[in-house]
Design brief:
This protein is α+β, with helices and mostly antiparallel strands. It is 37% helix and 17% strand. It contains 10 helices and 14 strands.
């Protein structure tokens, strides 16, 4: 089957979403109580709630900070199309009775990752879970890029948009910055969107949106998972430092062990075959992350599909 035929088949799959009342949303969140907050950002707040005895995540937008309300409706549209993928936070429905629609999504018990790639409970994520998260989000982004007639670019891939369920399955969310590249085109031009530390420098300077925008951001996410550091962290003297710059600096002096979170080596004892296998995985993971962020521009990654395949191979090294 040709790629185009495959795309048409996939786009035909729909995700019917429900319409909830404001009373249901208010009851589920205890009138948007602070005690129900999962995470809070400038543009929206995620709440936990229960509707019809089912736990859900509810996304409430802030009118004050949004300059373009169409982004909210884009989030609903793309979330609905993506909900068939197991590594996407499934959209159940929405409520249209507030100033802006409230989204009702499946509940992910561990919530979104923190800026440094951890979870809210403070539990340290073992290496196999970090690798699993990267592999699963890579498949989700690949689906976003390839499953529809037009290539859709996320433009906001970062740890806080990755939810983790009770089985440690990773779920990509927040599609409001998405932009489509028309068939036959290599890029579209648009104003720069994204989070500091995750924005592709080429995109920043040219405003050209390509698949490389997501590949770069995903590479930074990999570095966050590997290092346990945020994309921008306080360096010496509390000076803000880019994780990408820090990794590049360390690589120049072959300081591999300075990059890797020491927790990754836990449970391996003093050495042996397990340590050798773990180290081979971690080194391969770092090499792939560096290719994604185009370190030294040597052997850059061509697509998210390539990244997803590489991560599956790295996982099989164990």
């Amino acid at each position: 089957m040709s790629k185009n035929k495959n795309k048409k088949k996939l786009i035909g799959k729909t995700n019917p979403i429900r319409c909830f009342s404001s009373d249901q949303i208010l009851k589920a969140t205890d009138n948007f109580s602070k005690s129900q907050v999962i995470s809070s950002w400038g543009y929206f707040i995620w709440y936990r709630g229960v509707i019809e005895e089912r736990p859900v995540s509810i996304k409430k937008w802030s009118c004050q900070n949004l300059s373009n309300f169409t982004e909210v409706y884009r989030d609903i549209s793309v979330s609905s199309q993506m909900s068939g993928h197991k590594n996407t936070l499934k959209l159940i429905g929405c409520c249209l009775e507030f100033d802006l629609p409230a989204l009702v999504c499946e509940y992910a018990e561990h919530g979104p990752l923190s800026k440094d790639g951890g979870i809210s409970s403070g539990e340290v994520l073992p290496w196999n879970v970090r690798l699993k998260i990267a592999k699963e989000i890579a498949t989700s982004v690949t689906y976003l890029h390839t499953a529809f007639p037009e290539t859709i670019i996320h433009r906001n891939i970062n740890p806080t948009n990755i939810f983790i369920d009770e089985n440690w399955t990773a779920k990509l969310s927040d599609f409001w910055f998405c932009v489509a590249i028309p068939e036959g085109e290599l890029y579209v031009e648009d104003e720069v969107k994204g989070v500091i530390g995750f924005v592709d420098p080429d995109y920043y300077w040219t405003m050209k949106v390509t698949e490389k925008v997501d590949i770069y951001s995903f590479g930074v996410v990999m570095l966050v998972l590997l290092s346990g550091r945020a994309a921008v962290f306080n360096g010496p003297g509390e000076t803000p430092m880019s994780l990408n710059d820090h990794v590049s600096e360390v690589m120049e002096r072959n300081g591999f062990d300075e990059i890797v979170d020491k927790e990754i080596w836990n449970g391996l004892g003093g050495g042996g075959d397990d340590l050798v296998l773990r180290r081979s995985q971690v080194e391969a993971f770092l090499r792939l992350a560096l290719r994604c962020v185009r370190y030294k521009k040597e052997d850059p990654v061509s697509s998210m599909l390539e990244v997803a395949k590489e991560l599956k191979l790295i996982e099989k090294l164990s």
